[in-house]
What does this fold into?
Amino acid sequence: MTSYQQLSILAVGFALFAFLSKPIQSESVNLSYKGFNKKDVMKDLRTIDSIFSPPPVHFVGDGFRVHSLITPRGPIRSTRMNPFIMLDYNAPHFFSPALTPRGVDVHPHRGFETVTIAYQGEIAHQDNKGGGGVIGPGDVQWMTAASGVLHEEFHSESYSKEGGIFQMVQLWVNLPAKYKMSQPKYQPILKDSLVEVSVGSNSSVELVAGSYGDAHGPAETFSPLHISNVQLSREDIVPFSFPSEWNIGLLVLEGGLVVNEDQEVAKDHFAVLAHDAASFELRALEGDTKVLLLAGEPIKEPIVSYGPFVMNTEEEIRQAITDFQQGVFGDWPQD
Ligand code: MN
It folds into this structure.
């Protein structure tokens, strides 16, 4: 069998896997705050649109046990959190020691970026355009698939041997049409390079991308967006402001979150904010609250996605499948 035939089989397998692994959506709770009376608050603050409980878990490969919160079909639709078109959350989960690392074998991507944030455990990545490495707690791997890569994602060898708690987020960030067929790129963003801004007595905003006040995160992005880990303590109020048309989401990783005066968001839940104002405030309901904050300007272009490809038209999706089957994405390096 030629390697192209092997890859074609892999493509069909992956598409089938992507289809079959969609979580059941109906168990998500969607609490609307549209009845919230803004006259009750003194300031004009951006309110919560909806809060989503974590949908049932499913496995991506055998290494990532995830709640798929943002997908094309929901519970949070890609169009609602655009440019963040996919979010898989591997909430803390214990993996037993294993001789063979668990993960996802070689598969393609085109048309967007994968952003992987490790919170506990280690992830080893390799792609066929020269990107690769191991990321550990606090590190971020930012892969711009653009015109196309093949990559694999596994637990690192050392973490696999030890086993332990694993926690991570994988985001898919859409690319504007003009960059979808640009050169692939890989940014390893280690925790040391994240920009931490202290707020109040014991809170902080740790920037991966975008800005907070005068500080800027290290990631290079193709459209205006902000990704940060926000550490909150009870005594501080941490303010944010983004253009009101930006889409904003908050994933509670630890503790309990309060948005503005009194809107509570529980651990593992995801709050999507409304577009009714620019500013909002975060504080902790409990001590040691940690939140992943996503904010981005919507890319006002059609989204057509099929498994690992995200383009603007169906024709471009057909082209991606053909290109993949014909080996345009390149070969997988042989050991
Ligand atoms: Mn992938």
